[in-house]
Structure formats: structure tokens, C-alpha cells
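Our consortium's second objective concerns turning raw sequence data into structural hypotheses that experimental partners can test. To show how far this objective has progressed, the report includes one record in full. It was chosen at random from the queue rather than selected for favorable results. The single chain below, 224 residues long, was entered without modification.
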Amino acid sequence: MTEEQKRERIARRIALELRDGYYVNLGIGMPTLVANYVPKGMDVILQSENGMLGVGPYPLESEVDPDLINAGKETITELAGSAYFSSADSFAMIRGGHVDLTVLGALQVDEKGTLANWAIPGKMLKGMGGAMDLVAGAKRVFVTMEHATRDNKAKILKKCTLPLTGVEVVDHIITELAWIDVMPEGLVLREIAPDATIEQVQAVTEPELIIPPGGPAKMPVAAQ
């Protein structure tokens, strides 16, 4: 699969978890693609931590408004009823527990749901952004990432080695290969991609995955 195909598969799967009335924060990078796959007719309110409620899908070239950007400085669209406010108000929403679901990218996740997603020692730092607030304040935390590094090393580890964002905060891990639930007993392989096998997923996952009775379900994807 190409990088774009992997990202699309992950974003489409996350979109299936959205529900009417949810307030959802989409993190910088891959998570922002979820906005393109919100099911038609669903009333979901997407929040951007730089101060906006009512984020729409990415704009067509003819729709670009340079004043409308998300937290990743990408141009976005607004939906009817969108609201704008200060960063302080935005983080009051997050810290106050008003975000139903947040989707974040990751560099590493461990078997306890501990997340590292903001710093690689020796590389330029852009800052941690709002991720630490989001993992502490959101009701459910979804992590999206490619399952392995470019040299095929595991990113789902027994213990994170990079600077931490939050300790035991992740509920679900979604990659191009699998949906994994973080449970008290360990990592449960809930779903597997149609073109993957349990052995392939385990080979690029450091902790031993728990296979549910009957095996993992096939990963569905949202409609275009």
C-alpha cells in the first residue's frame, strides 16, 4: 500500500466511530483526514484546538480561505453554525472534559496505553501542542499511525522509549493493519485488515497480542 492509501484506510475506519452529537478533536497530521469521511447526514462537531468548532472537510482549490486554518496550519472549511474563540476557551473545553473523542497521531504506544507522540531526541522540536491536555481531558483517546517504522521496526512496544505524552491514556490503536484495544489484561487484536494475517501483525508488534475468541473481525471501512 502507498502512504496515502494507508492514511485513507485508517481515517475511514476512525470515521465509523463517530456518532451524532459527538464533540471530536482531530490531531495534527493523519487524524485531520477523518473530517473528509464523516458519514453523510451525521451531526458531528469537530473541534480545532486553535479555537474553532464546526470544522468541515478540506477545501477544494476554489474554496480556500487563508484565514481558516486548523491547528496544523492547514486550510479548512467551516460548516453552518461554526464558532470561533480564543485558545484559552478551546483548552477550557478540552480540560473540562467536553471532548467525547480525540484522535491523535503517535510515534510510539506501549502495551499499557502510554503514548509518545511529540519528540524524537536529536531532532527539531515543534513543541508538544495540545496533546497532553487532550489525552488527559478527552473521554476516549484513539491513536492513529502506521503500524511499523519505515525500516519495519515496531511502534507498538512493551515500553515507550521516547519522551512521553501521557501515561496509560490510550483506549484504541488503529493502523493500516489492525484495530487494537488497550485493555487491563493487555492489547486485544479486535480487528484485522482484509489483506493482513495475525502472524503479520504480531511480527511488527512487540507485545504479545491477545486474540479474542473466534479471532479478530475483518476491519470495515467507511463509504466514500
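The partners drew two points from this record. The longest helix spans residues 3-15. The first strand starts at residue 23 and ends at 26. Both points have been shared with the crystallography group to help prioritize constructs.
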